[in-house]
Amino acid sequence: MKKISWLRKFESAFIIIFAFFYWYTTKQIFLVASFCLFFLFIFFDFYYSLSKGKSLLARIFFKLYPHKEEEVNRIISDPSLFFASIIAMTLLFSKEIVVLSTILLFSVDAFEQIFGISFKGKSLPWNKNKTYIGTFTGFVAGIFFGFFSIYLLKMTIPYSIMIIASFAAAIGGTSSKFDNTLIHWLSALAIFSSYSVYLG
Predict the structure, then answer these.
(1) Are 4 and 63 in contact (CB under 8 A)?
(2) pLDDT value of residue 5
(3) Contacts of 135 (CB under 8 A, 6+ apart)
């Protein structure tokens, strides 16, 4: 049975801090920070892979930030994908969309996993490792954190759009592969397209 990596969940809260960091800084500073962190993780990804997991330094690094089961045999880990995604998003979307989709990434993923594993429920037809209760909880968490972020940061994006974005994020979280990347991008695209329609 799948277990919750509480260390990884705790460290994933850094995503929220990173989102707020972008809100209160400039695009240029944020991009520099993102590139630095991307190169840090990608270096250890390749170092770990080339040494076939025998490098002591790489093993220590990934004990501090544990791999998920599905990441062990992959060259590129989730953090590397996250920083690559956020760099691309920063270049493509507005600050509000990047910040909100990043907050949704943390909230939806965390609550889907915690409640999906903690409370046994009916599995999804297309992914037996994910449950309806986990998906629904992630959806509700996304709405709550999205509403709170819009209110706290005084964003111009309407609250109603967060319902659409949270739904897209929750569906992205049901994927068996690269669910974090899908949550991030589907929520960003949902906000972008819905907000474009709202603005007319």
Answers:
(1) no
(2) 57
(3) 112, 116, 124, 170, 171, 173, 174
Sign (positive/negative) of CA torsion 135, 101, 77, 14? Answer: negative
Instruction: Give pLDDT, residue 78.
Output: 83
**Measured on CA atoms in the order 152, 20, 15, 63, is the torsion positive or negative?**
negative
**pLDDT value at residue 1:** 44
- pTM comes to 0.87
Where do the structural domains in the chain lie, given as residue ranges? 6-199
The first and second tokens of residue 8, run together, are 């990884």
The pLDDT score that the predictor gives to residue 25 is: 96
Closest CA to 94 of 197, 195, 199: 195
Which residues in the chain come in under a pLDDT of 50?
1
The pLDDT value given to residue 36: 96
Task: Give the CA distances from residue 11 to residues 64, 97, 163, 190, 194, in Å, rounded to whole numbers and listed in that order.
Answer: 9, 23, 26, 27, 31
Q: What b-and-e string marks burial along 80-119, b requiring 16 or more CB atoms within 10 Å of the CB?
A: bbbbbbbbebbeebbbbbbbbbbbbbbbbbbbbbbbbbee
